[in-house]
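Lab notebook, design round three. We kept the backbone fixed and only want residue identities now. Task for the bench partner: fill in a sequence for the structure below.
Input structure tokens:
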């Protein structure tokens, strides 16, 4: 479930965060583990009141691109938002832009104006804008965010595109298997029952299944419908998704790849914040939500280690948040002072490694999956027709 939490951060004041957690107690524990003071916790409805674009969320990247282009053209912040307001047709977006313009006219900083809309502008985005206001490079920060989000989208699209074919195979195979087991097998069972043919063991088991379904059609349909509803309901629950993710983490090869993917997101986001001028400890606290709970605990320990004066590379390596290559790059970043650039290089290295693994896995998994589905469907068909083959042989 999603919760909206109002917290107090030292140096930033009162900030609203949005977190996913099974219950309110877990939310409070997550926030306090980061050293924030909890002011209020409120369950957030899944339906957002903010505008949709093509069925998706508010187009934050497109908004950033437009704002960047207008600022680069020489417009002030107020003029840029007034321009976006003029072309906007959706009432919710217009209301939001009007609220931001009003805040800017009152003399508030842009980060303060954006902070009013946490459903649209996440804490990371607001923190990046706030850091740029101290250095006066808002356009550069927007450019960094656009590049960061583009890289994240590239990796996400690679993983999604690689999973489409296996999911399609599993779906079609499951539908064919269900059709055979729920419709075809019962028909054959009735025929063999009338003929009275002596069936092999596995064929007899299959035909008994078919007879049972034939005699209890309504109950079978109800059970299938309930199971499908339970699966769809469970898939929509954060706690169930978290449980599924934990099961994947326990698979050695897959769990390590998920860890690498999360570390890639973690280091890319960390690099964006560091290059934006945000201190390392504050940046680590902001990006901790990108990691799985186990890694979040390791990151909290690493943050405490850094607060005590230990090098970043030592803290990350000690608590299992690096690989050998990442540790070397972190040490180089500490020597040169370019930690933000080095963390982004680590993310790029992880992205390349992840892309290679996804390509290898799909090349191996897709034919293996086709063979398994073919064996299941073929086995069912053979067990149905085996008595016919035997009958034809006896006639000859």
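Proposed sequence:
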């Amino acid at each position: 479930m999603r919760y909206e939490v109002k917290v107090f951060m030292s140096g930033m004041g009162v900030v609203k965060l949005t977190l996913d957690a099974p219950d309110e107690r877990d939310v409070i524990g997550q926030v306090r583990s980061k050293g924030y003071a909890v002011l209020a916790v409120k369950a957030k409805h899944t339906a957002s009141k903010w505008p949709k674009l093509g069925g998706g969320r508010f187009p934050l990247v497109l908004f950033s691109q437009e704002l960047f282009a207008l600022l680069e053209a020489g417009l002030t912040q107020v003029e840029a938002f007034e321009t976006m307001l003029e072309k906007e047709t959706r009432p919710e977006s217009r209301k939001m832009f009007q609220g931001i313009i009003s805040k800017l006219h009152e003399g508030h900083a842009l980060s303060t104006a954006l902070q009013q809309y946490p459903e649209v502008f996440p804490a990371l985005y607001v923190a990046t804008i706030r850091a740029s206001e101290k250095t006066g490079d808002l356009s550069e920060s927007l450019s960094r965010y656009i590049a960061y989000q583009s890289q994240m989208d590239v990796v996400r699209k690679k993983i999604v595109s690689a999973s489409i074919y296996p999911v399609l195979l599993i779906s079609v195979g499951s539908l064919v298997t269900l059709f055979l087991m729920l419709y075809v097998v019962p028909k054959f069972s009735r025929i063999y029952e009338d003929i009275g043919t002596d069936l092999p063991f596995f064929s007899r088991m299959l035909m008994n299944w078919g007879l049972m379904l034939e005699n209890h059609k309504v109950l079978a349909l109800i059970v299938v419908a309930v199971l499908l509803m339970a699966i769809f309901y469970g898939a929509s629950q954060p706690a169930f998704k978290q449980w599924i993710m934990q099961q994947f983490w326990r698979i050695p090869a897959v769990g390590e790849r998920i860890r690498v993917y999360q570390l890639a997101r973690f280091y890319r986001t960390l690099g964006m914040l560091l290059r934006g001028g945000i201190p390392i400890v504050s940046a680590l606290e902001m990006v901790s939500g990108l990691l799985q709970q186990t890694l979040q605990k390791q990151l909290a320990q690493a943050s405490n280690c850094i607060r005590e004066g230990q090098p970043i590379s030592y803290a990350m390596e000690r608590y299992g948040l690096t690989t050998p290559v990442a540790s070397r790059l972190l040490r180089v970043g500490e020597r040169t002072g370019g930690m933000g650039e080095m963390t982004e290089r680590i993310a790029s290295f992880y992205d390349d490694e992840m892309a290679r693994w996804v390509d290898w896995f799909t090349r191996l998994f897709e034919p293996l999956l086709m063979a398994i589905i073919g064996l299941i469907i073929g086995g069912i068909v053979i067990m149905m027709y085996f008595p016919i083959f035997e009958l034809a042989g006896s006639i000859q």
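Keep this in mind before ordering anything: The chain has two domains: 2-45+56-149, 150-396.
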